[in-house]
Amino acid sequence: MKRNNLDASKLMYGVSYGDHIMNPEGIVKELESLLVGTANAFLVRLWCNAPLSEEAYLEIARFAVKQNMPFGFLYATQHAPEGEISHISPELCQKIKAIGGELFLGEVYGESGSEVGAKDKGYFTENRRPNHAPMPPQDTQTMTQAAKDYTDHLEHLSAYSKSLGMGTLIVEATALSRYALAAGIDVPILEACPGNVERLVPFTRGAAIGYGKKLWGSFIAHEWYAGYNHADALKRKRLELFYKYLYLSGSNIIFLESGSTELQSFGEEHGYDSPLCQNYRRVMKENFDYMSANKRPANGPLTNIAFIMGEGDGFTDFMGGSAWCRFDREEWGKSASERSWDILKSVYRSGDWHDSHTYANCGLDLSGAPGYGSYDILPAETPIEQLQSYDYLVFLGWNTMSGALYEKLTAYVKNGGNLLMSVAHLSENANRKSALEPVNSGDVTALFGCRITGAARYNHGVKFDNKSYIPEMQYPGTPNKVCDPVYPEGFADYARVELTTGTVRAELVDRFSAPAGDSVPVVIENKCGKGTAILTTHMAYPGDPAVMPIYTRLVKALLAASHANAEVKVTGADKVRFSVFEENGKYTVYLLNTDFDTPACVSIHYAGNKQNVLLPALGFQKVEL
Fold first, then answer.
1. Contact (Cβ atoms closer than 8 angstroms) between residue 599 and residue 617
2. Least confident among 22-31, 342-351, 575-584
3. CA distance 599 to 74
4. Which of these, 202, 237, 233, lies nearest to 218 by C-alpha position?
5. 12-26, 225-239, 383-397, 454-468: which has the minimum mean pLDDT?
6. How confident is residue 49, by pLDDT bands cut at 50, 70 and 90?
7. Cβ distance 397 to 340 under 8 Å?
8. 191, β-bridge pairs
9. Distance from CA of residue 27 to its chain's centroid?
């Protein structure tokens, strides 16, 4: 089984102390009451208007050593007192390191991506703190420059702590963790409740994989982002699901932001002894006990398919109405490139029973999950050695193509990989408003077996072939193409191509009878070395309304193929999430029923055997094969 660089056996589990109430005089006593027996790590949140004494920091370090708990400080730089670079001076840093040793994680930054990459214009003028990040330059012309501006911002933000030899971690509520790692920050931590956690976990984990890190983490901001009604029954159940889902996903760090001691949000206040806060502590304790008693295997979650976050992509998932916080220019507003990521909403949805384009793989309905239950989202700069550990790669959102990236993708396919992308992803133009400029002046023979020669606009349906070079890849087509065209979704721009070694798998057709031979190719497969490259001739990104249905079908077909080619398969209720880990040749499957109220049954298929598992509502189960 192919391995990545992560080690899922490591787990730091705890809280971030001080979200609402900071008691500088009794901080260690409060940490002891909150953590002992329910956590093995912690963070202390710092505030610009409530600095701690030097002795308080040293007491915290001594407490951490006594309890053998990794610890760090959140917002030391971003929330520094006015006129200061950081709460932690060079002299204080050395004293903390002398006491804490390897247990001292360092500084944890918070929400930079949402702060200067996702939020709307008014956030830059309200509630300004002394070290608040400025609004990005508003005259930026290219996505490449916007991405560089953000990376430079993070390099500047983290320079002080790195100069002191502190570790650097970042809590990020968006999909932009890759840029933090590009800036030299050590560990990405997902703020798990804002945005779609089932998309953002793969972005965070994939960033760690792409940059060769061993750890990634999660930060459960449940109080603020799991629902506005604290007493809502589903919000309470959501807390349990977040803990279990993050464990299942391989998160090495799981911290609760707030809620265990007090709730102060949305005009409500609930104290330590309130039923709501007691529930936070109960859930935290129960999950700590389980995770302490059930060490995960090191290798996992296994994945055989990954999506690629392209060069310059500023998709955030959380908020992000204006790309890279470039406001008031329509071309920078959320558009087809960002909406392409919405295709991921279909990953864990089985095809409807009446959907004739959902096919059986291995005699099973495998349409409800990717291979091994998980997928990663890798940055385009991921080294070829790591890309090669995946059998399938898919492009969705913005990409500024380069000659180097094109050559890397060609090498990936020649070495046995399978690739799906569109002509839109081949453009070297980083300007959101300008025309598509295909790499190599349109000569993509080496990878896709064709040359791009022009463009035309059509409004027709598509007919597919029913063959593919990729095992278990099933297009919704017939041998003779005497059938109705499918996916007539409106006008779209298509690249005109001259075929060399490519094979047409789908073409534009406006009639029931078979194509006459002069139709426009829409999907091209090219056998390239040991692998296969698939190109759609759409010149708009997959998020375009006329493109999304057919591109989604291709993605779903490739996901089903990835599931069919996995050694462990899970079928059944598509509200059940699963992951697979491996150690010493043995597989462990984790199952989570995300349904709030109803039990669910799934079947595990492995080595010719089938095992049925019934999960209660919110049920979590470990199955060793």
1. yes
2. 22-31
3. 39
4. 202
5. 12-26
6. confident
7. yes
8. 219
9. 35
326 DSSP 8-state letter = -
Measured between alpha carbons, how far apart are the two ends of the chain, in Å?
A: 15
Q: How much is the pTM?
A: 0.97
User: Any bridge partners for residue 17, and if so which?
Assistant: 44
Which residues, in sequence order, are CB contacts of 121 under 8 Å at separation 6+? 135, 322, 327, 328
One-letter amino acid of 220: I
Distance (Å, whole) CA 184 – CA 311:
18
Task: Record the tokens describing residue 63, joined without a space.
Answer: 């407490």
Q: Which residue has the tokens 């598992």?
A: 613
pLDDT at 519 over 90: no
For the sheet with 568-572, list strands across it: 568-572, 600-606, 609-615
Q: Which residue has the tokens 């992951």?
A: 579
Compute φ and ψ for 159, nearest 5 degrees.
-60, -40
* pLDDT surpassing 80 at residue 285: yes
Rounded Cα distance between 335 and 544, Å, is 8
- The pair of three-digit structure tokens given for residue 238, joined into one six-digit string: 């959501």
Residue 297 is given by DSSP the state: P
Strands (E), 111-245: 168-172, 187-191, 217-220
Cα separations in angstroms, 39 against 18, 69, 485, 540: 16, 8, 58, 49
Q: Is the pLDDT of residue 566 over 60?
A: yes
Q: How confident is the model at residue 130 (pLDDT cuts 50, 70, 90)?
A: low
- pLDDT of the residue at 354: 96
Residues paired with 333 in a beta bridge:
322
Residue 1: pLDDT band with limits 50, 70, 90: low
CA angle 290, 168, 304 (to 5 degrees): 55
Scan for tokens 């996702």, then name that residue: 118
Torsion of CA 86, 92, 94, 96, to 10 degrees: -100
Asked whether residue 2 carries a pLDDT value surpassing 70, the answer given is: no
Helices (H) and strands (E) in the chain, counts: 15, 26
AA identity, residue 24: P
Q: Tell me: cis bond preceding 301? Omega within 30 of 0 counts.
A: yes
Q: Identify the pLDDT of residue 390.
A: 97
